[in-house]
Amino acid sequence: MVRVDLQRVNEVKEVAKLSLSQPDHSGPLRFSQLSDNTPPVMVLDRNWDIPDNESVGAVVTRVRAQDNEGDRLQFGIEKTLNSPRSDLPFNIDKDRGVVYINQSLEEYPALPLVQL
Predict the structure, then answer these.
(1) What does DSSP say about strands 14-21 and 28-35: parallel, antiparallel, or unpaired?
(2) Number of domains in the chain
(3) Rounded percentage of the chain residues whose pLDDT exceeds 70
(4) Measuring CA to CA, which of 18, 25, 62, 108 is 20 to 30 A from 82?
(5) In a domain, 24, yes or no
(6) Residue 23, in any domain of the structure
């Protein structure tokens, strides 16, 4: 049995700077705007128990997310820093959020492997 525990990744705030000129050419007006780009709301099961003999190509879960600012989302999957392997047995469809097995799980221990 392979157990996968997911970790949440947060977005960062963005700073935008804009310069405007005054019509009488008395100098530039400057201001900075700090905008909060809130993290998307993700809906998924964060713990997966998958038989280690599950077939390659089997769907594990589907990530659903909504962005509060209405931006288009793309999904990704990365190994955690403490993952014992350099490769991952999972892949994710970047547009649909479908997570599937892309290699045999028989050699993977029950450790936190990925973050979405």
Answers:
(1) antiparallel
(2) 1
(3) 53
(4) 62
(5) no
(6) no
- The tokens describing 34, both together, are 């700090």
What is the reported pLDDT for 14? 42
85 within domain boundaries: yes
| Residue 58 belongs to domain with CATH number | 2.60.40.60
- This model's pTM is above 0.90: no
What's the start-to-end Cα distance of the chain, in Å? 21
Q: Is residue 31 part of a domain?
A: no
State the residue for tokens 């525990």. Answer: 5
Closest CA to 63 of 53, 80, 49, 77: 77
> CB of 92 within 8 A of CB of 98?
yes
Strand locations in 2-106 (E): 2-5, 14-21, 28-35, 41-43, 47-50, 59-62, 64-66, 78-79, 90-92, 98-101
